[in-house]
């Protein structure tokens, strides 16, 4: 039997989570409620407890056919009316934590999952704002990039198309996203939606000008940043960025499907559709005669 003290504690936790979410939203940090086990709620009644069968982290598409973003990072919002009404109002009663979409707030979280990962970061990454977690630390940087898991042992990157649990502001001063973090994606492709069309990333067969793999890694990181920082004319920015990448890396065969998917993910994070990405890529290839 549920005791009155348990009910009061649950109501207190609900109010605390909701208060935290509204405070973050007021600072333009997109938020969402999490169930126990750090699992998102569905954002409509048809998707409550993920009964629609869609994948709740939205890193790959599922069978859910809802017309709006309904799961995970895609449901994160700064709209107080959404946060306090409808299905969300019920979700806060069961929420175990508050999560946020780092990329939507212009941030990147380097998730260090154990002591060894923390030791590595202290040796190789610039100091920044640090938040303690259950098993390790979150290092927060100013800037967005594609997300990826296990870029090295015990290290995940959470930014665009991902969510992170809100654990407070931590300590230290947040610094700009360094190239050392962006370069980590050279060891593993970012977690992205599958590309909507099947096409070659590059023609290949040319002379490779890359003295080291870092040349390509940094070029892709700069391209992703250029797209992410576009404040207007996103269509044109995406096309020009695709054109620049293909003109430099499109003939030697180094550019692969994983690299193309990263660029598509950066464009989709700015609101571009998969169809628009495909058209921009095709047009850029055509303009270069690839």
User: What class do helices, strands and sheet pairing give?
Assistant: alpha+beta
Shape: globular
β-strand percent reads 5-15%
> From the alpha-carbon coordinates, what is the Rg to the nearest angstrom?
20 Å
Low confidence ranges:
1-10, 55-62, 187-200
> Helical content, roughly?
25-40%
Please give the number of β-strands.
10
Largest sheet: 6 strands, mixed
Please trace the helix and strand order, writing H or E for each element.
Answer: HEEHHEEHEEEEEEHHHHH
List the helices and strands and how they pair.
Layout: H1 4-26, E1 31-35, E2 39-40, H2 80-83, H3 86-94, E3 97-100, E4 107-112, H4 115-124, E5 129-132, E6 137-142, E7 148-152, E8 155-158, E9 164-165, E10 175-176, H5 179-182, H6 213-228, H7 234-249, H8 257-269, H9 274-288
Parallel strand pairs: 6-10
Antiparallel strand pairs: 1-2, 1-3, 3-9, 4-6, 4-8, 5-6, 7-8
Helix pairs in contact: 6-7, 6-8, 7-9
What's this entry about, in short?
With 290 residues, this protein is an alpha+beta fold.
Key attributes of the depicted protein:
six-stranded mixed beta sheet, single chain, four-stranded antiparallel beta sheet, disordered N terminus, 290 residues, 38% helix, 14% strand, alpha+beta
Structure characterization notes:
The chain has about 290 residues and is of the alpha+beta class. Helices cover about 40% and strands about 15% of the residues. It is built from nine helices and ten strands. Strands 4, 5, 6, 7, 8 and 10 form a six-stranded mixed sheet that branches. It has a four-stranded antiparallel sheet with strand order 2-1-3-9. The longest helix is centred in the N-terminal third of the chain and has 23 residues, at about 5-25. The protein is globular. The chain starts with a helix and ends with a helix.
